[in-house]
Amino acid sequence: MNYGDNDTGMMSSTLQNLTDYKMTDMENVMEVRSERIFPINSSTYKHIFRLDTAGFLDKSSMLTFKCKAKDGTASAKGLRANTFNGVLGAIKRVQLHFGDYEIQNLSEAGKWATLNHLKKVKPDVQNKKLSHYLGNQLHYTVLEAEDTTDFAGGEGITGAIVPDNTRSGMNYGNFSTGAGAAVNSQAITNDADGNHLHAVPLGMLLGALDRRDLPLFLFTDYKVFLEIEFEADSSEWVNAATNNNYGAGEQLKAASGDVLFSNVELCVDYLIFPSKVQEDYRQKTQAEGGLTLDFMNIFNIEKTLLDGTANVEQREDFRLNVLDQELHYVQMVKQLPEGTNDRVLLGQRSDGISVNTLQYNVNGVDVFPTPQHSPLQHYNQVSYVLGNDLQVIKPLYCKDVNTEYSMLSPPIGNLLGKYNILALDLTNGEPSIRGGGKMVGNYPIIVKYMRKPHAQITSNIASNPIIGLAETGTLNVNFFCATTRLVNVRTLPSGGMSVVVSNA
Length: 504
Known about the structure:
The protein is α+β, with helices and mostly antiparallel strands. The chain has helices at 5-18, 109-118, 123-134, 202-205, 275-286, 375-386, 394-397, 401-406; strands at residues 31-37, 41-42, 46-51, 56-57, 62-69, 79-81, 91-98, 101-107, 140-142, 161-163, 170-171, 182-183, 197-201, 214-215, 224-230, 238-240, 259-272, 291-305, 314-320, 325-335, 356-362, 365-366, 422-425, 438-440, 445-451, 457-458, 466-468, 475-491, 497-503.
């Protein structure tokens, strides 16, 4: 190989470093200590683990478990975790405690994780990599002319996007009746030993692991607990393939309590850095004021918008009491009452409204010059929050009038507007956690929301296809707020450690 002058000089410098025996040798090898941790306390749906205070907790550590159909008729129903987010839908609540101090208490943790970790990566990564862990496997297809017969009354048109019944983990059957539904992969049976072992990275569930590994070795005087609560209502996240009377109100979903959990463990990696690294941390705890660590704290606020009237504007000011804290973003997941068109995303959906506007008031000032109304404006805010484009197909996000009338995805195809997330980005470009958001004073965040819902829309053509589903029902809303959480660690004169948790 022919090297240029610059290459030769670089190579010479490298050789000199390799043969410089005057350099001070220093331990520079990181040790990874892996452990299986079993719950110290368990109930049917809740499991509590105690973590060792050794090294750093790696964000790639896993919560592992198997899904098990309860004995009886449930085992014969062809159960499968939904193909959209798999077993993430099974994670109801995650809590992290350092002694008596609460670092995170997040309800609807699976929904937050789905948006912020699963749906921000490309579909190939979702389905080819993460599906090994989560069991999700949702593919789409474009209707050919011969496929439209699956839709009653010609409601499917050539070129429309629908779930791919062949490649997805579920065959959702006939789109109007559900007939022929079947499990294509990873069935949940009542024999846990033969069922798939699922794994959820802790970095997906814990905001405290966002952008950092947890230095657990600093908390040797405290007991570190991680509490995982599973979703008891299986209908929120599990399909039941043998419910073939879909047209009579069944939604190809399991019943509450149909799925239990076994083999619940943590597979934890503790990163043991060279002693000098950990000693540097400890020395900072001995300095005046101690060492302050910053974590991303995620919490959920639930609100409700009552029934609306077709074609009449309905306005609501949602007040979020995020007071005297540094706020990074707000995400809004909204759900209409369950309908017969929720069988793909089930309770993991966020229902779109064809006409709605959004304005935020922060510190007494409106954020936008005028309320945001277009799907593009809403999509941009979500993507800003994620730091990446939301990786879902257009009809899954958009449910404006134009999308409905284009029949890009037939309403009874179970995709149209089923993942319409709204959001507000308050980051300022600073990559760190502390200082990267916006300080909120003693005024609550006011979310000014307007919807103009429509009743069911049908066309005037002979087949009378459904163009749009009714939007007038009660709207249940989950707001996910991300704030800065500070943990101050200080070495006491006695040699013990003092920990104080506060908000920025």
